[in-house]
Automatic annotation (TrEMBL):
GO cellular component labels: plasma membrane
Acidic residues biased stretches: 302-327
Upper taxonomic lineage: Bacteria, Bacillati, Actinomycetota, Acidimicrobiia, Acidimicrobiales
Protein name listed in UniProt: Branched-chain amino acid transport system ATP-binding protein
Organism of derivation: Ilumatobacter fluminis
One Pfam family of this chain: ABC_tran
One GO MF term: ATP binding
Length: 327
């Protein structure tokens, strides 16, 4: 089935994709076929889960931001976490990575509980997340940003970097940083202030910095947000590269083209809960997903819908007409 024929959310090709730039990053997919027998339903069992979340909830006042009954993330795959605005993706991401504490629930990484484990300790256990270049980090050079990636996961504990034990390791860490900058084609930016980089270069540094601890599970928060098409292919290639070298990737993303391009499996959240799971093609055709996006007035790419599909979706959308077009 072609993209044009596929009903539901339009998963097209990423801008600039399919050309020579894409070919540069033709990586092997070690989990090809692994999802063939996985049921495309919320909470489905995976053959070899690296991360398992059970009964994870988070409330803010009267609002239930996250209510995830069961989720398994397959080892070695690229899993996308998608959903309309306010679905709870970021909150769930924060709960999984130790940046926020759930009200209830348990998370297991590689067979061991990580409940209440701080982010920098999770990094030692092989789980890292990207974090955005803060103002403070923007005033540091790119190589110093890389070095900080080796010692912590929040970028807040600058003073730790001055401890003597860290100093002794500095050369080794700097070497690792330089190797990663080379891999991400950022060597020419090594001694520049991080704040001078373009949006796409920042994303590359965020990804490269996350690799300083040689993680087995990499959590990427909107890796393509604000990236121009020229660098999008490069970033997509690097994400596939993480998978090719055996790492597991989970990423939150709004761009459906990106999701279709690189995901092995897609998890969809709406109103805090997981409402669907499946391959990108399963998800593109899933009526529950389409309803969730339409119900929230998310600005997804729905231009490809036929009049019948629009009429069907509108009749399922119970939002009062007066709220149409609200953000
Ligand atoms: N610190 C907080 N205090 C109060 N409410 C919050 C807080 N963080 C998130 N929320 C609420 O929880 C719900 C889920 O928010 P969250 O940011 O996790 O969604 P999201 O799926 O990441 O959305 P987006 O795609 O817009 O980033 C929203 O209704 C949001 O307003």
């Amino acid at each position: 089935m072609t993209d044009e024929q596929r009903p539901g959310i339009e998963f097209g090709k990423t801008a600039g994709g399919g050309g020579a730039a894409g070919a540069i990053h033709d990586h092997v997919n070690p989990v090809a076929g692994v999802f063939d027998d996985v049921e495309p339903v919320p909470g489905s069992k995976k053959p070899d889960p690296i991360l398992i979340a059970d009964h994870v909830t988070k409330t803010f006042g009267g609002l239930t931001a996250v209510d995830v009954e069961h989720l398994e993330i397959q080892r070695g795959g690229i899993t996308a976490l998608i959903g309309p605005n306010g679905a709870g993706k970021t909150t769930f991401f924060n709960l999984l990575t130790g940046f926020d504490k759930p009200n209830t629930g348990h998370v297991v990484l590689d067979g061991q509980s990580i409940d209440g484990v701080a982010p920098h300790k999770l990094a030692n256990r092989g789980m890292v997340r990207t974090f955005q270049l803060t103002k403070a980090l923007s005033r540091m050079t790119v190589i110093d940003n890389m070095k900080l990636g080796a010692v912590n996961q929040t970028g807040e504990h600058f003073w730790r970097a001055l401890l003597p034990i860290w100093k002794r390791q500095e050369q080794e860490i700097e070497g690792r940083g330089d190797a990663l900058l080379d891999r991400f084609n950022l060597t020419h930016m090594r001694d520049e202030f991080a704040g001078t980089m373009s949006g796409g270069q920042r994303k590359l540094v965020e990804m490269a910095r996350a690799l300083m601890t040689d993680p087995k599970l990499v959590m990427l928060d909107e890796p393509m947000a604000g990236v121009n098409p020229a660098l999008t292919q490069s970033l997509l290639g690097h994400v596939k590269g993480l998978r090719a070298e055996g790492r597991t990737v989970i990423f939150v993303e709004h761009d459906m083209d990106v999701v279709h391009d690189i995901s092995d499996w897609v998890v969809v959240m709406a109103e805090g809960a997981i409402i669907a799971e499946g391959t990108p093609d399963d998800i593109a055709a899933n009526p529950d997903v389409i309803d969730a996006y339409l119900g929230s007035h998310h600005d997804s790419d729905f231009e490809s819908w036929s009049d019948d599909e629009i009429a069907q979706a509108e009749s399922a959308d119970d939002t009062p007409a007066g709220e149409e077009g609200s953000p």
